[in-house]
Amino acid sequence: MPIARVRGIELAYDDEGTGRGVVLLHGYPFNRSMWRRQIVELKGFCRVITPDLRGHGESQVAPSTIETMARDVEALMTALEIPNATIGGLSMGGYVALAFYRLFPLRVRELVLADTRASVDTEEGKQDRSKQKERALREGMNGIADDLLAKLFAPSTPAKHPEVVEQVRGMVVHTNPEGAAAALTAMAERDDQTTFLSRIVCSTLIICGRHDTITPLLDSELMQREIAGSKLVVIEEAGHVSNLEQPEQFNRALVGFLQQQD
Ligand code: MLT
């Protein structure tokens, strides 16, 4: 497993394929293994970089903000000599992708924003994160996994794709509770990026599961209205983890978008 030492921490990542750079950023509390089906599809014509964001997977746990995670990704790209790339993220990964664009627009060829949003948490949402953080630190990740799994999927996913539910449970329970706590703080304190959307000038693909209840379609429709020329693809029979629930539909959208840019 490759490890890069960047900005004082160790980041685990995968680097597969050759061609134009594509960086894919996972959600909370997941890790880079969620992109396996996308890597298989893309590595024939892209160099796909999938880091474990700080506090997740096999990367080091450290205090975190969304901006810090974006700076880690930029430092990783520098270490790997990738001047610019398509930056894509799902959910928390999408918060990081938007922050990355705000900080380093010249290093972004295209944006892919999947099951994410530009707005901040409500007060109730922040309180939920604070409770979840205490629970993770007190009990570990099993209870968090049970709560999350009840909300993540389209109604048809558990029966049709039980292996996806197990994969997601595996990622959640293997997340370090302190890493999860740091990410919860980072998400609760993140900046509102709504007013910034109209300043995005790169090609942007927005993807959302039809049944996403965590970052619902309305959030994606708002981003699509604000980002000039952006395209929105709705993934049928998918909830919040659309790339795992419906990898064929997700990959078709992603590959079609990337091929249009060449
Ligand atoms: C994620 O999937 O990254 C999280 O559900 C995002 C969030 O809680 O806002």
Description:
The protein is α/β, with parallel strands linked by helices and 262 residues long. It has eleven helices and eight strands. The protein has an eight-stranded mixed β-sheet with strand order 1-2-4-3-5-6-7-8, with helices on both faces. The radius of gyration is 17 Å and the shape is globular. It starts with a strand and ends with a helix. The model has no long low-confidence stretch (mean pLDDT 97). D-malate is lined by residues 27-28, 91-92, 187, 214. Residues 27-28, 91-92, 187, 214 line the site of D-malate.
**What kind of oligomer do you see?**
single chain
| Strands in their spatial order, largest beta sheet | 1-2-4-3-5-6-7-8
Q: What is the count of structural domains?
A: 1
Number of discrete helical segments? 11
| Superfamily (CATH H level) name | Alpha/Beta hydrolase fold, catalytic domain
Distance N terminus to C terminus?
30 Å
Mind telling me which CATH architecture this is? 3-Layer(aba) Sandwich
**Radius of gyration of CA atoms, rounded to a whole number:** 17 Å
Give the CATH class.
Alpha Beta
Assign the structural class, choosing from mainly alpha, mainly beta, alpha/beta, alpha+beta, or little secondary structure: alpha/beta
